[in-house]
Amino acid sequence: MPTPEPQRPGFVLPLLLLAGFRTLIDDLHAELARQGHAELRPLHGFVLQAVGADGTTASELGNRLGVSKQAAGKTVDRLVALGYLERADDSRDARRKLVRLTPHGLDGLRRSAVIFDELRQRWTETLGAERVAAIEDDLRAVTPANWFRLDIPGWFTG
Amino acid sequence: MPTPEPQRPGFVLPLLLLAGFRTLIDDLHAELARQGHAELRPLHGFVLQAVGADGTTASELGNRLGVSKQAAGKTVDRLVALGYLERADDSRDARRKLVRLTPHGLDGLRRSAVIFDELRQRWTETLGAERVAAIEDDLRAVTPANWFRLDIPGWFTG
DNA sequence: TAGGTTAGTCAACGTGGTTGACCAAACCGT
DNA sequence: ACGGTTTGGTCAACCACGTTGACTAACCTA
Hints:
2 strands, Arc Repressor Mutant, subunit A, MarR family transcriptional regulator (chains A, B), mainly alpha, MarR/SlyA-like (chains A, B), homodimer
C-alpha cells in the first residue's frame, strides 16, 4: 500500500488558484498592452465579454456582471471615454440606451480571445493537454453550475 | 490512436480558476461569519496572514502584500477599528510602530486555517486526493515561483 | 386614463488603491 | 560629533469600483 501523503495546508489551494488566474490575466494584459490596448484593465475584459457583439443595456449588463445598474452605468461611462463602447438610442423604447462595442472595442475583444488561446496553449506545452483539460474538468466539478453567468467584479472589495 | 480533443476556448481556463478561488473564499467567509467574524472581508484574511503571529510594521506589510506603505497603513487602520489588529511602539526604534494581532485577530486567523483545511477536504471527497494534489502541483508548475510572497490585493482594481 | 413597472441618472458614501509632500528618527561616513 | 542620507509613518488629493436611495421619463396594463 502507498505511503499516505502528508496533509497539505488548505490555504495553498486557493492561493494557487488565484496565482494561476492572476498569471493568465497579467500575461493577457501585458500582451494586450503590446498590441495597442494599454488602457484596458482586467475588469474591462469581462465587461467587453458581457456586452458581446450584439450589445446590451446598462441594466442587463449589471445583471450579467452581478452588480447594480448604477455601477454598470459608471463602468460603461469609463469605457465610452476610452473608446471601447458607444451608446445608441433604441428606436423602439426611448428609455433604453443600447451599449455597443466600437470597432476598437471589438478589436480588443478579438485580440483577448486569441491571446487567451495562446496562453492556454503555453500551459499545455508544460503540462500536457490532458492535465490542462483535467484542471478544467475538476474545477467544473467543484464549482457551482450557475457560476458561468459571469459573476465577477466587486467580490474582492466587498 | 485517440480521437483528438476538440480545441477548448482559452478563456474558460481563467474563468474556472477564478470560479474555484471565489468558491473557496466565499465558502470560507460564509463559515467565518457563522463563527462570529462577519465583518472580515476577503482582503482581510490575507492581511492577517501577512501580519502573522509575530507582527510587523506597516511598511513591511506593504512589501509583503505588494502595495504602498500608505495603502497598508490605511488597511491596518480599518482592521484596528474592527478589533483585529493593534499598534504598539517599538522601544528600540521610535519611528517604527509594530502591528500585532489582537486575540480576536488571532482567533480569526486560526479559524480561517481550520476552515480552509475543511474546504480542501471537501474537494478531495468529490475529486479524490490525487486530483486535488495534481491541481496544486500543476498550478505550481505554471505559476511564477516568486508568487508566494503574498502578492495579492489591488491587482483587479488596477 | 390612472397606476405600476422599468431604464437611466444623480448624489452621497465606503473601500482599496495611487503619488507627492513632509517630519522625525536612525544610520553612516568623515 | 556632526551633517547628509535613508527609513517609517502620516496627511492630502485623487482615482476606480462598488453600494443605496431618490428621482424622471417612458412604457405597459387593467
